[in-house]
Amino acid sequence: MSAPAALLAGALRPRYAAPVGAAFAALAVLATVRGWSAGGGTVDVPWAPTYDLRFTVELDGLAVLYALLATGIGCAVLVYSSHYLPLHLEHEGRPESEGTSFYFFILLFMGSMVGLAMAQDLILLFVFWDLTAIASYYLIGFDRHEEDSRASALMALLVTGITAVFLLIGALMLYAAHGTFSIPELTRLTEPGPLLAVAGGLIAVAGLAKSAQVPFHFWLPRAMAAPTPVSAYLHSAAMVAAGVLLIGRVYPLIQKSDLLLDALLVVGLASMAVGGVLALTRDVLKQLLAYSTVSQYGYVVFMYGLGGKYGAAGAAFYVIAHALSKSALFLTAGAVTEATGEDRLSRLGGMRKPLPMLALASGLAAAGLAALPLTIGFFKDELFFGAALERGPVFSALTVLGAALTFAYIWRFWSGIFLGAPRDGACGVPVALVAPVVALGALVLVGGVFVGPFAELAVAAGTVSYDAPAVVEPAYHLDARPENLMALAAYALGVLIVVSRPVWSGAAMGVSRLGEVAGPERLYDLTVRGLNRFSDFVHRAEVRDLRSRVAAILLPAGILVGVGFLVTPTEGAYRVGEVRAQDAPLILALLSVAVASLTTTITRRHVTLALVLSSAGFVLALVYAFFGAPDVALVAVLVETILTLVFVATLKLVPRKVLHRQAGLPTERPRRKVFFSVIAGAFAFAVVWGTLSQPAAERSVADEHLRLTPEAHAKDAVTAILADFRGLDTLGEISVVALVLLAVATLLNAGRLR
Amino acid sequence: MILTISLVIAVIFGAGAFLLLQRDLFRVVIGIVLISNAANLFIIASGLSRGEPPIYPLPEGSPVSDPLVQAMTLTAIVISFSVAVLLLSLVYRLYTSHGTVDLEDISEMEVREAEALERESDPEREEEPASRPEEVELREDTR
């Protein structure tokens, strides 16, 4: 099992050429298949034992399915981009070397996707989850000189990143209740109840946002600003698939809550409807495909919501079929755009003549998505209908409608490109742009004939999700069973939708416009803009004035201290302390310090101010002496002398005119300042009084110092402490003084500005 | 006694905070010096015992002052002195570059400078508001 992991680690390193990347991807595919045929495996290493985090990966059915998707389609995409990317960069007029970061991030993405597929630990899952988000940010914003591209990348990152926090919160809630992050253990431990519903719901929200389900769907069409290979990979097979992968992974938890299943049903249905209708209105090729992805993953979520073995295994099968078809269609869109320079349906047409192979291959892919017989898509709809039939006629009718919508918009896509009158300006495209589409189209066809291996994979994945054997056997039945009838009904309805286009196109456009005006995308825009404005405001308020900056630090600190006081019990916390007769001089000195300090606030002239300050300092030295600290008193006198001299000297350097102006200025808004100062003093008072009232019970350290002083060949305990017991402190202090000296010398002399 | 010391420390701290809010940079420096004084007094007052100086020969029978807080106060005094000197030279430096020691004048000048920078920068820069504050801050730091 470690083989694929090691190979992928190799693939993560920046490879400077597409072939190497593609080869690594192919190797990873082989290694995954080998690992799977060898019966899977588990790697379980304690990662951060302090927090109960384990690096647990297991190659189970679900992991194999998504790892194969990620590496296999990734391989096709890499082959495709080896020719697409140089062309793309040339169009943009950028050096070819910029392609390197593209390969790096796409391989990083692939690696984290495989890790995500195999992770069995919620925190590990979260780490890989965010890795995919980060890689996708750089991939979507690959054309970084275009603002639209950057905004789309940011949107994708914000939507998936913020909802990823929900995943983390859900994981922590489950950990708090059950003491483990491991999904299999949680499956065993959890009981249905409100906690599970909330935690599972949070995790599901993260999955739904990543899968671009309503109401988080808006980021996906915007993300189509990315180069085509990225769209093909991230938005058909990988990134959006990660969402349903997460749901499939935690499905054993989710299916214990009926509420969550119902929620999945609703979200899936809404996504099917919104995605399908909007796909019918879009003109830009990739936008159409993006909305179709929204609706297709709506089906998957819907199937998970239906539950049962058909739901779990069917959803897995649906993901395979969809990823194969959709990535082929995306690559088709890219190739066609590359050939003609057009990316709108209304300006394309008749491409079957210049690009016959592409037409055939993408026709197969389209047929797969539309669920025509002989393609793998037929079985996906068979399972889909089967799952719906278990729940009753209403759901069956809805699924038929959904399938019909799919049929209609896929027909629109394919016929719009390849049928109709030929246009001028088309030229051939390199083989490497067609080959991956052909390969994927062929796979769709092969899956339609030999469904066995695909079904096996889906059953294995479904078994993991369902937490019980989920055996389904998709096959052709040439009789009038309900599934077949529903498929026929879907085709008929689809044709009807295509034919009756003029009737509904107005209504569909109306829906799409309504979505633009009142949809969640607008909400997102408003939020981002508001946050921007708020950050500008804070920046202006905080940076432009030193005092506001000080306030920005002191205010929260003060609030925190205040909160601390409010929650601390105050009973007996304060003592007045005794006053002895011999303390009178000390109190007198203290009072003069206080008076001197107060005087500084009302003194106008600077020299007076400096002198008042130094008088306060000298009296303070006296206070130290009364405290029985002659050393401190001596140093304080020395320091105070020097400080006074420095102060007066600095004042001398600044012309008297400038100082006079300052001295003459009245204090503006004095009441506010006095108020703030009183508050500050009150806080200081509370803190100091509280601290001094509760001295530590023992004084062993001081006694020890006193006892050891003779052994340090000293008579003064304080000097012994400074020079010996705590010598390192003194060393640090000396370096601070030396540093300040250097800084002052530099400031005064060298590098004069003007 | 505890109450008296606490009150005095609070008064010194409050006076320092008041000066810190002034627009005159010299007063700001003095405010910081006062606040450090309050802190030093606090440290020495938090000694566990108060009495004779802790110098050998120790007096018999009467209590000896806590030597540890004294050593710490010494360190704190020296450090706060360094800080005050550094601040003073910074103020002087600001005076040489801006010709004033008034906070409001200086910040006004900086706002004007930032706006001039914004006007100079090419339109593509304008789209990235995130890069502008960093530039301005960098300039402030290097000045």
Count of separate structural domains of chain B:
2
Q: What does the average pLDDT of chain A come to? A: 77
* Mean pLDDT across residues of chain B: 79
The biggest chain-chain interface is: A-B, 104 and 92 residues
The Cα radius of gyration of chain B reads 23 Å
What proportion of the residues of chain A is helical, as a percent range?
over 70%
Rg over CA atoms of chain A: 36 Å
Reported for the largest beta sheet of chain A, the result is: 2 strands, antiparallel
What does this structure look like?
The complex is a heterodimer of chains A (754) and B (143). Chain A has 754 residues and is mostly helical. Among the domains of chain A are: 257-499, no CATH class; 699-754, no CATH class. Chain A contains 31 helices and 2 strands. Chain A has helices at 2-12, 18-37, 61-92, 99-118, 122-140, 147-178, 183-189, 194-210, 219-222, 228-249, 251-254, 258-281, 285-306, 308-340, 356-369, 376-391, 393-418, 431-449, 452-466, 482-499, 501-518, 520-543, 546-567, 584-602, 606-626, 630-653, 656-664, 670-693, 700-708, 717-725, 727-748; strands spanning 42-48, 53-58. Chain A has a two-stranded antiparallel ribbon with strand order 1-2. Chain A starts with a helix and ends in a 6-residue tail after the last helix. Chain B has 143 residues and is an all-alpha fold. The interface between A and B is large, with 104 and 92 residues.
